[in-house]
C-alpha cells in the first residue's frame, strides 16, 4: 500500500474551501496520512491525540514526530528528571493513536550535528529500547552515516535494531544532509520524506524567517517522474510505503503530493467527505 500526505495540516491553504477551526477534518478529505509536527516542540496532551483520532476516518494514519529532547535537538531534559521519564511521557501521549490503530510510525529525525560515532550508535540503541514495541523510523541529517565506507553498516544496523528507514530527498550540499538511499530496512513499513531541493534555503542560518525559505521549493514534473520511478523500485521491498511532502514554505506541498498521486495512478479509499460543514 502506498500512502501520500503532508507534514502538518495547518499550512495548506489550497485544501480548504471554507473557514474552519477543524482543518484536519478537511485535510482528511484529500489525504490518508499526515505528519504530526507539534509533538516535536512539546509532548502533546493525550486529549490532543484523542481529538485528532476522532476527527479522522478509521483508515487514516499518523506519523508522529519524536519530541526534540528525545532526538537531542534540546540539550536538557527539562521538565523531566531523566531520559526514562521523558520517553514514558511521550509514549503516554501517543496511546490514542495506538489504541485506534492509526499510528503509522514515530519519526526520530536527528539534527545535522548528530554524526556517526559509537556514542550516537549506542544512543540509538537506547532510544529503540525505551520505545519498546512502538514502530520507529530513523532519519539522519549528517552525511557521515552514508559515506561510501559507512552506508552498508548503517543500513545493516537499522535492519538489525528494527529501525524503519526514513528515505529523504533534500539538497545535496555539505555535511548537514544525506543522500537518497533507496534501501528499505523493514518489510512492513518504509517512510519517504521530500524536503525540496532549495540549496540556498537549506544553508540559511536558523534565525528569523529561515523556515519560510528552507522548504521553499516546488517539484517539477520531471522530478516527480523521477520519484515515481524510485517508488516503483522500492515498493516491492516494503508492504507499506508512506510518502510525505515537506516543501511547505510556499504552499507547494499539497499540489506536489496530488501530482505524484496522479502519476502513480493511486485512488485513496476511505477519505473523509469533502465540505463537512457546508450546511452547519
TrEMBL record:
InterPro entries: DUF72, UPF0759_sf. This is DUF72 domain-containing protein.
Amino acid at each position: 500500500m502506498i500512502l501520500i500526505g503532508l507534514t502538518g495540516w495547518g499550512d495548506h491553504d489550497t485544501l480548504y474551501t471554507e473557514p474552519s477551526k477543524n482543518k484536519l477534518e478537511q485535510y482528511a478529505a484529500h489525504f490518508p496520512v499526515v505528519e504530526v509536527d507539534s509533538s516535536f516542540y512539546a509532548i502533546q496532551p493525550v486529549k490532543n491525540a484523542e481529538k485528532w483520532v476522532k476527527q479522522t476516518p478509521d483508515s487514516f494514519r499518523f506519523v508522529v514526530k519524536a519530541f526534540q529532547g528525545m532526538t537531542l535537538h534540546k540539550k536538557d531534559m527539562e521538565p523531566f528528571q531523566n531520559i526514562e521519564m521523558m520517553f514514558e511521557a511521550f509514549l503516554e501521549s501517543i496511546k490514542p493513536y495506538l489504541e485506534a490503530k492509526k499510528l503509522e510510525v514515530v519519526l526520530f529525525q536527528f539534527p545535522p550535528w548528530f554524526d556517526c560515532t559509537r556514542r550516537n550508535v549506542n544512543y540509538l540503541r537506547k532510544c529503540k529500547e525505551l520505545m519498546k514495541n512502538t514502530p520507529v523510523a530513523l532519519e539522519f541529517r549528517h552525511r557521515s552515516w552514508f559515506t561510501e565506507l559507512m552506508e552498508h553498516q548503517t543500513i545493516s544496523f537499522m535492519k538489525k535494531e528494527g529501525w524503519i528507514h526514513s528515505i529523504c530527498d533534500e539538497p545535496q550540499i555539505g555535511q548537514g544532509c544525506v543522500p537518497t538511499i533507496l534501501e528499505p530496512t523493514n518489510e512492513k513499513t518504509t517512510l519517504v520524506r521530500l524536503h525540496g531541493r532549495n540549496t540556498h534555503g537549506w544553508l540559511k542560518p536558523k534565525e528569523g524567517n529561515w523556515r519560510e525559505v528552507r522548504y521553499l521549493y516546488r517539484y517539477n514534473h520531471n522530478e516527480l517522474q523521477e520519484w515515481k520511478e524510485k517508488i516503483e523500485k522500492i515498493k516491492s521491498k516494503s508492504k507499506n510505503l508512506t510518502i510525505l511532502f515537506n516543501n511547505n514554505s510556499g504552499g507547494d506541498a499539497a499540489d506536489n503530493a496530488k501530482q505524484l498521486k496522479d502519476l502513480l495512478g493511486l485512488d485513496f479509499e476511505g477519505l473523509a467527505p469533502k465540505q463537512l460543514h457546508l450546511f452547519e
